[in-house]
Write a structure and sequence with these properties.
The complex is a heterodimer. Chain A is mainly alpha-helical. Chain A is built from 17 helices and two strands. Chain A has one domain: Cytochrome c oxidase-like, subunit I domain (Cytochrome C Oxidase, Chain A), CATH 1.20.210.10. In chain A, strand 1 and strand 2 form a beta hairpin. In chain A, helix 8 packs across helix 14. The longest helix of chain B is centred in the middle third of the chain and has 27 residues. Chain B starts with 11 loop residues before the first strand and ends in a 12-residue tail after the last helix. Classes of the chains: A mainly alpha, B mainly alpha. Chains A and B meet through helix 5, helix 6 and helix 17 of A and strand 1, helix 1 and helix 2 of B.
Chain lengths: 559, 279
């Protein structure tokens, strides 16, 4: 790996004399995919801090039995807003942001196919988030003014109906997600079109970086799944505002129908969030193993297979509804089948590591943490796919542990890895390696203290969403450990934010290719110019920069 | 990558011009939707903004797309030319010195696994019987313990009651013991060729210790209270006896080639002589 830093101050970094108003105007009116990508990511991290504070408050409440820090109603609002925020306002914008920033650079294009639609999508997402949080100030809920939604991130019917959710806090939830959903769909249309039509010469589909392949599959999943949620939310609005009875069981409606609609979106959503994590790992692990990715074709096929199977497993979230033997067996088996392509990916990452010259820099640390944690997440998922065990563990802390292993152990770890990896490209500055290690270890230990223990709480019968518990259940120690881990995680994120600030206060210049990497984004300056590439590149293999750096042994001779 | 320019924009490039139209449209649509929970005035305000944004967007695109000219970076700002590194990458070849790859090109036949399982199971039962006879005056105590998982069906609790002969328990113990022995024998036959180093060490020591650890952790979940009635030292010794016996029998069997080591024509189902093929 080449020297990672430069002492030369980039000219672009010197041009910081533009006034705040001009700078703000430039960012607000931008249609540049890179700026929009950074806006998505920054907004995602802003909401991550908010969602994290909500999580800390909940863990503080649960740290000791019979705690009175929070009222039950406040706790309900917190877990509703935390779940909704983390899925729709953190995960979605950050994956969209990285996709926006990197796809054109990786395929040798100068922008996304629809730059103005791209900007519109970002603003719709941000406004959706603002509408959701407006509920804290503007909505009239069951308990008076200023009551945020309290129906869970799934808003099950009939709880979300007018009869049980008075006032309009639930309407803020519906409208906020509805508005941000338009942004996600427009972003997906943009990514699909860009990938299929704007690749540089020589960038055949079998030469696409795995990142781009995976974002393509994710975009198709968004186009398939999100409109179903949007449709269901419009039906719920009809129920609440116009007296329709889609989900009103008293009037011939069907509450389980909402669950089917929600989880037909909700389970693909898990893969919509997780496959980008796979994408980051698939770019980072080879570079820091100094090896080509193992099994490129199988990685692509496994991603497509996950995308296909993902739309056939939604009702495993509904075993306790009473699906009947046939459907239970179908959804259990389909869920187990997901383990096959996912296992292929895990084996391929490990095989990439095997025999490599491994460099344990911060992005790699996060990816290695991800591999182990995602393995556990997958295994506990297969456990939960067994309907009988699911009946025992459903709505327990075991399930909470499982999906946090997926979304934090899997996605958030890879997001942090991606931040350390691509931050130099986005800003021209390196993030501190020393602070990065502190960040990793604090977050890693905190994560395991919080969520590994939750498996035990679940097996011991602790239900999720309870705001407190009596002392004699044997859950005290586990909850105390979980809550202490949350503090370590918060410290880890604080170190990360400090590292971001330090990167601007005491810049360590990165140069165009600090990791000695192989995809096209590293061939242009850091940060890239508005047009990305002055001349459109032409590629002959999956690692175009390798070919340039090693003309005696180019990849296209081996692929 | 080829550095040949497909276009030569030495001075700069025209890119889509910045515009606030998408922001106006987004704010307008959001306000219109939010009017459901605020005021009907928001419909009008939002509608106006959305119309403003939509018209602005239209004018960005027609009669021709609005562009702005972006000057090219100065030479000093551009990424420097990539300096080639001469030489080839040296690839490891399977089997060469220092290469640790292990491919399942040969395996022990399933029959060896079954034989190993039977031998290991017999050795285990023999040692268990002798140990029970020497320490408790009854060969049945430890052997009946093999039926621990089905004891509730017979209304017998783990403990002193197991010292006597119970036909049902003994039969159950025999069935459980035989089935588990055969299955573990088959697993050994499949897995041992894949493991590096000494198969006897893996089969005789490591696997029994792992199995014991897993059993120690999980047995309370299967049968609460059962862990206290198990003599764990004896348990470990019995596992090692099984592992060493089964591993020895399996290791002595003649290995057979797996299908992947056959030539394509043989894998395609044609009858060919594969004796002389190099792996």
């Amino acid at each position: 790996m080449s020297a990672s830093t430069e002492t030369r101050v980039p000219e672009a970094a010197k041009r910081t004399t533009a006034g705040w108003s001009q700078s703000l105007h430039d960012w607000v009116t931008t249609v540049d995919h890179k700026r929009l990508g950074i806006l998505y990511i920054a907004a995602g991290f802003f909401f991550l801090v908010i969602g994290g504070v909500e999580a800390i408050l909940m863990r503080a409440q649960l740290a000791v039995p019979a705690n009175t820090l929070l009222e039950p109603q406040e706790f309900n609002r917190l877990f509703t807003m935390h779940g909704t925020t983390m899925v729709f306002l953190v995960g979605m914008p950050i994956i969209t942001g990285f996709g926006n920033y990197l796809i054109p650079l990786m395929i040798g294009a100068r922008d996304m196919a629809f730059p103005r639609l791209n900007a519109w999508g970002f603003w719709m997402f941000l406004l959706g988030g603002i509408v959701l949080y407006m509920s804290y100030f503007a909505s009239m809920g069951l308990y008076g003014a200023g009551t945020a939604p309290d129906v869970g991130w799934f808003a099950y019917a009939p709880l979300a109906g007018k009869a049980f959710s008075r006032g309009n806090a639930t309407d803020y939830w519906i409208l906020g997600i509805l508005i941000s959903g338009f942004g996600s769909v427009s972003g997906a249309i943009n990514m699909v079109t860009t990938t299929l039509t704007m690749r540089c010469p020589g960038m055949k589909m079998n030469r696409l970086p795995l990142f781009v392949w995976m974002m393509l599959v994710v975009s198709f999943l968004i186009l398939l799944a999100l409109p179903v949620l949007t449709g269901a939310q419009v039906m719920l609005l009809f129920d609440r505002f116009m007296g329709a009875h889609f989900f009103d069981t008293q009037a011939g409606g069907d509450a389980v129908l909402w669950q089917h609609f929600f989880w037909f979106f909700g389970h693909p959503e898990v893969y919509i969030l997780m496959i980008p994590g796979f994408a980051y790992a698939s770019e980072i692990i080879p570079v820091f193993s100094r090896k080509v990715i193992f099994g490129y074709s199988f990685m692509v096929a496994a991603t497509i297979a996950i995308g296909l199977v993902a739309v056939g497993v939604w009702a495993h979230h509904m075993f306790t509804v009473g699906l009947g033997k046939g459907l239970s067996v179908w959804f259990a088996v389909m869920t187990m089948i997901v383990g096959i392509p996912t296992g292929i990916k895990l084996f391929n990452w490990i095989a990439t590591l095997y025999g490599g010259k491994i460099l344990l820099r911060t992005p790699m640390l996060f990816c290695i943490g991800f591999i182990g944690q995602f393995l556990v997440a997958g295994l506990s998922g297969i456990l939960l796919s067994g309907a009988p065990l699911n009946w025992q563990l459903s709505d327990s802390y075991f399930v909470v542990a499982h999906f946090h292993y997926v979304l934090i152990g899997g996605l958030v770890f890879t997001i942090f890895g991606a931040c350390y990896y691509w931050f130099p490209k986005m800003t021209g500055r390196m993030l501190s390696e020393r602070l990065g290690r502190w960040h990793f270890w604090l977050f890693f230990v905190g994560f395991h203290l919080t969520f590994t223990t939750m498996h035990v709480q679940g097996v011991l019968g602790m239900p999720r969403r309870i705001y407190t518990y009596p002392a004699e259940r044997g859950w005290e120690v586990w909850n105390a450990i979980s809550s202490s881990g949350a503090i370590l995680q918060a410290l880890g994120v604080a170190v990360f934010l400090f590292a971001l600030v330090q990167a601007f206060r005491r810049p360590q210049w990165a140069g165009p290719d600090p990791w000695n990497a192989w995809t096209l984004e590293w061939s242009t300056s850091s940060p890239p110019p508005a047009y990305n590439f002055l001349t459109i590149p032409e590629v002959r293999s999956r690692r175009p920069l390798w070919d340039l750096k090693h003309p005696d042994d180019p990849d296209w001779e081996h692929e | 990558m080829d550095s040949e320019a497909l276009a030569s924009p030495a001075e700069g490039l025209s890119l889509p011009a910045p515009t606030s139209a998408p922001l106006y449209l987004a704010v307008g649509l959001a306000l219109m939707l939010v009017s459901l929970v605020t005021s009907v005035l928001f419909v009008w305000a939002g509608g106006g903004l959305a119309l403003w944004g939509a018209v602005g967007w239209w004018r960005e695109m027609f009669p021709e797309e609005a562009k702005e000219f972006v000057p090219a970076q100065a030479e000093s700002e551009r990424a420097p030319e990539i300096v080639p590194v001469p030489g080839h990458v040296r690839n490891l070849v399977v089997g060469e010195g220092g290469h640790r790859v292990r491919l399942p090109l040969e395996y022990h036949p399933y029959s060896a696994g079954l034989k190993g399982g039977i031998a290991g199971g017999l050795a285990m039962a023999l040692v268990a019987g002798v140990h029970g006879w020497l320490t408790q005056g009854s060969a049945w105590h430890v052997f009946n313990g093999f039926a621990l998982i089905v004891l509730p069906f017979f209304g017998v609790a783990p403990g002193p009651e197991l010292a006597g002969f119970h036909a049902g328990i003994a039969l159950s113990a025999a069935v459980v013991h035989v089935v588990l022995s055969l299955l573990i024998g088959l697993v050994y036959a499949s897995v041992l060729p894949m493991l590096p180093g000494h198969p006897r060490l893996w089969g005789g020591i490591v696997a029994p210790l792992v199995w014991t650890g897993a059993g120690f952790v999980s047995i309370e979940l299967v049968e609460p209270g059962a862990a206290e009635s198990i003599q764990w030292t004896v348990f470990i010794v019995l596992q090692i006896v099984f592992g060493m016996t089964a591993g020895e029998v399996i290791s002595r069997s003649e290995r057979v080639k797996t299908l992947q080591s056959f030539p394509l024509v043989a894998r395609a189902g044609f009858e060919v002589d594969i004796e002389g093929d190099e792996l």
